Input
Amino acid sequence: MKRKQIIEIFILIGLAYIYLMFGNGVVSLTNPDEVFYTQTAKEMIQNKTWMTPYLFGSPQFEKPIFLYWVMRISIGIFGDTSFAARFSPALFAILGAIAVYFLTLIGFKNERKAFVTGLMLISSGFYIGLSRSVFTDMIFSVLILFALLSFYWGYTYPARKGPGIMLFFVTSALATLTKGPLGLIIPLSIVAVFLFVKKDLKFIFCKYSIWGLLLFLAVALPWYLLMEIKYGSTFNREFFYNDHFVRIIKAEHIENDKWYFYPFTMFGTVFPWSLYTLIGLFFLFKHIKRHANNFSIFLAIWISVVLFIFQFAHSKLTSYIFPLYPALIILAGDYIYSSISGQNKGKLFYFVSLIMAIAILLFPLALIAVIPKLSVYLSSKTPVYALALSLFISGAFSLIFVLRRKFLSFVLVLVSLLLIVLFGASLLNNDIEPFVSSKQASEYLMKNYPVNSPIICSKFYARGVRYYTNNEIVVVDIPGTNYFSPHPVLFLNTHQKVRDFMSKYSVNYGILKKGNVRDFESLTAGHYKFEVLKQIGNEYVVRISSL
Output
């Protein structure tokens, strides 16, 4: 490796740490998913197991085991903290930036383009968001990225064919242990279609693939076999049927079940590189028709296959198509670097950059306009005005740089844009936390009142209350449906079920949303004393006592 490449990688790692990991522990774990995954790792530690995920005291199989393994390790190192929980996604996000650097370098043979693309990845909106959240998607997608990098490395350099293929299968196995069979289906489908298009399927039919497949089975299969042996139909019903098959035929989030959901969100999530990504994708398919090169074909197939796999499933979330994110950023990086280096001469890049500069300049005005509506959530408006001023200054510099055609400086402003937003958001942490986390409400209840019964929780807060109180809970949602993956907790979705439960205890405590507070006020009238003890954010700490 060249000295220049080593320097670029270390710079990229340092910047990636700032964008993706620094300050990850400031805000407490949020509802409903971060506490779900962290509670599972926490209960695995309590049950002294590395193999069976637990939630609310019972085995749960919504996701495979790899995320919980890495979370157990990070919690063991850093303690039971929000930073420890978010450490693994952030670490994999940093590794993903390095992988994109090397994949771009292999594909385009241009170190500067690879470095610019890495900078664009770590400064894009959704990538930052998932790196700072406890989800499976970042780890899963980075493992798929490493699988595709391994394959393309072996395909491009014949002397590396063996290690490339075997690393492909090992990283696919880890992805399979992170989110299920798609960990192999996605990268293998991309590789198979690519080799078919290149009329080079013989590349994969070799002894290295046999060894690779054996490695895949050795890494991925034991955990699945163990769960099958220990839990049988329970594991199959929840993991394969409910969390895979049902999500194909039934929408978990009905409002997302639209044909245009993925195409629109695909470009929105790469902000501030959205317009450049759209143009890069257009030129990609345009250039393939004229003079296709291997890397362009590979990127086009990568994006197309991921979209095809997820498009027809009724359960849609933006994070599902996150595995195509690196390919989109590479396209945008190629287009931007080629434009600022003079390889793509024309007015289009200037015009798009001008639109972006004007948008950045106008955004602070929109932010100031909504401050009155946000004032109920803010202890002080000063941080918002400071953020608006910082963005306005960035927009002014952006416009000046574009008008003077100093595009490299303009791109660096775009790279810094979300770092400014992150800093501004950090000034609002104390205001934001009560609205995203159940920590303060839970701690207030447990410190000030003798809770001797299960805590009644609104559905959205239940996981957080369990995590922060370590107390038994019951879930209320009137009328409502159970979780998409049912939890082993009592679920109260009718007035009669609520009355039956409250009759068991002389005093009940709850952490409820406003709608549930109104429900309880009406159904307790004349029979119980209902008190709102404190409102913290959108959560109401309540006490219900027998008359």
Observations:
- The mean pLDDT is 92.
- DSSP finds 23 helices and eight strands in the chain.
- Residues 347-374 form the longest helix (28 residues).
- The radius of gyration is 25 Å.
